Amino acid sequence: MAVFREPEREISVWRRFRDGADGFVSIERDGLKGVRAVGNAESMVELFLDLIPELPDELTVEIDDWREGRRWRGETIGQGDLLASLYPLRLPLAASGGVELTLLAPQRQLTLSAHLELLAWSQTDQWAFLLARAGLVERDAVRGRLWRPERGRFASAPALIEPLERLVRALTLVAV
């Protein structure tokens, strides 16, 4: 008996977690065009990872741990090394938040905030186009998280500590 299967559709992992509240707003400031995207925690972490390949191969990476008040920075970090190091961090990060990840490239920036909102800036409307293409809806305004702990007020997250420290070591980031 032969079994016929349709070809599987290509699915971006972050889309599995999306809900109707995922959306973004376009922002313009000081000649730069930006976006602020909100959605559930898992979808924002996965979207952040999906957007990294849109940046150049070498990046400046800044990490700000809002829980412990630690900050690190590294320059000329390879995109492949960054993605490999970030992958184990995605689940504890989505569960806990509290760590801001900023990727800087000439004339572009991509940030996953400590509150798990995505922020991106460039001189073009590149990010708005990419978010719309990914299926997020552009809105006049987006509502942020109902929980918005301040720096130093995030709940303990033991499952996040080791993957974060491993990422810092793997990328040889320097404390600032």
Task: Fill in the keyword field for this structure.
5 helices, 27% helix, alpha+beta, 30% strand, 176 residues, globular, nine-stranded mixed beta sheet
Could you give the distance between the termini? 64 Å
H/E series, N to C?
Answer: EEHEEHHEEEHEHE
Class by SSE composition: alpha+beta
Strand content: 25-35%
Rg (CA only): 17 Å
**What is the share of helical residues?**
25-40%
Main beta-sheet annotation: 9 strands, mixed
Strand neighbour order, sheet with most strands? 8-1-2-7-6-5-3-4-9
Tell the overall outline.
Answer: globular
Description:
The structure is a single chain. By secondary structure, this protein is α+β, with helices and mostly antiparallel strands. It starts with 22 loop residues before the first strand and ends with a strand. 31% of the residues are buried. The chain has 5 helices and 9 strands, in the order E-E-H-E-E-H-H-E-E-E-H-E-H-E. The model is unreliable at 6-18 (pLDDT under 50).
